[in-house]
């Protein structure tokens, strides 16, 4: 289906949903994953895995593979690939849109401290705090360097830096349910939750649990990304694709 092939930069549940929807609208999805997770859930259609070798490599891939448009459906915290996607779109003249779920917002009873990045989150944790750390495997090591804090570090795959013995490592894949989040925080004597403003439903219940147990939250804000047309849901992306005039 030359000319109607759409590259989805993935790594999110929304990217998989979009790959399932595209064929119904007459488009051919080509999904791309970074290759950081073993046994990822496979989307519908063609799948390629691994980096492109920067923005230039991504632009070449699009030219060589007959890509007609790029949808950046990567995680809100995956800043580098979004920058590369924007640069590759500029270099090739291809249309680009982003699929990005909205961030979370505070509700009455919440006690959130918003910080700009990982380093600020590490600094913001009070001395001797018991922490539930849910920021993924890549940056967990920055928290393990604080000898006075301890707690539970939850992630899908083991961290790049080994956790000290004062931390309990919990390998688990979302979704996480409220009753389990309550039990985890209670049994771990957690008084601080550290998380990224990832948005979405599958990891939201930890925020409900924190509210119920009066656990304080350090919420790491999203990195800034290039400004491109953005939709919040896979369904809404089709409003943008219509303007792309892909034949
Ligand atoms: P990143 O820092 O923005 O990207 C690092 C490099 O990984 C990119 O330069 C690119 O390599 C490669 N890459 C990233 N996403 C790719 C994709 N979809 N297809 C092909 N190559 C990709 O990304 P990250 O934060 O490490 O995240 C990696 C992946 O995990 C992303 O796809 C993201 O959607 C997913 N994810 C990230 C988080 C998070 O918190 N960061 C959470 C959940 C899922 P080249 O320069 O060689 O092309």
Written account of the structure:
The protein has helices at 13-21, 54-64, 79-92, 118-124, 141-144, 178-187, 205-213, 237-244, and strands at residues 5-9, 28-33, 46-49, 67-72, 96-99, 112-115, 130-134, 150-155, 167-171, 192-196, 216-220, 230-231. Strand 10, helix 7 (205-213) and strand 11 (216-220) form a beta-alpha-beta unit. The mean pLDDT is 96. With 247 residues, the chain is an alpha/beta fold. Helix 2 crosses helix 3 and helix 6 crosses helix 7 (205-213).
Low-pLDDT stretches = none
Question: Structural class, please?
Answer: alpha/beta
Query: In which order are the strands of the major sheet placed?
Result: 3-2-1-4-5-12
The rough form would be described as elongated
